[in-house]
Amino acid sequence: MATIFTKIAKGEIPSYKCAENEDFYAFLDISPLAKGHTLVIPKHVEDDYIFHLDGETYAGLWAFARKVAVALKAAVPCKRVGVAVLGMEVPHTHIHLVPLQTEGDMDFRKAKLQVESAEMKAIADKIFAEYEKL
């Protein structure tokens, strides 16, 4: 049974795509901590624990996430891009990239933002355009 993230990466479920290559996919979190909150996933591995990934997939995921974070920071004004790996909600390894103004912006217990679809699309398009420049 494919995870929701696998279905997103395959295009079976719509998403706000920020970046993609043959092995990895990045898309906006639909319940973001901040505008531009992005999830980065491996396309072909559904394991829910990042440290179960083989070395090549693990290294590739982080290299891809780094490139997405650079694009994210260029597209969304912020002081830093925070990184978290929790993986408690969806049983598919994923890295959270969150634009930060303060450390408090990375508190996953706080209320999530409600962002209109048009704005989500505009943010994803900006990140994608910055990613394509790299």
Regions with pLDDT < 50 over 5+ consecutive residues? none
- Mean residue pLDDT: 97
Query: How does the major sheet shape up?
Result: 5 strands, antiparallel
Distance between the termini: 35 Å
Order of helices and strands: HEEEHEEH
C-alpha geometry: globular
Radius of gyration: 14 Å
Multimerization state = single chain
How is the largest sheet built, in terms of strand order?
Answer: 1-2-3-5-4
Instruction: Tell me the number of helical segments per DSSP (H or I, 4 or more residues long).
Output: 3
Q: Find the structural class using helix and strand composition.
A: alpha+beta
Helix content: 25-40%
Strand content: 15-25%
> Could you tell me the number of beta strands?
5
Describe this protein's structure.
- With 134 residues, the chain is of the alpha+beta class.
- It is 33% helix and 19% strand.
- It has three helices and five strands.
- A five-stranded antiparallel beta sheet has the order 1-2-3-5-4.
- A hairpin with a 3-residue loop joins strand 1 and strand 2 (24-28).
- The longest helix is centred in the middle third of the chain and has 21 residues, at 55-75.
- The N and C termini lie far apart (35 Å).
- The relative contact order is 0.23.
- The model has no long low-confidence stretch (mean pLDDT 97).
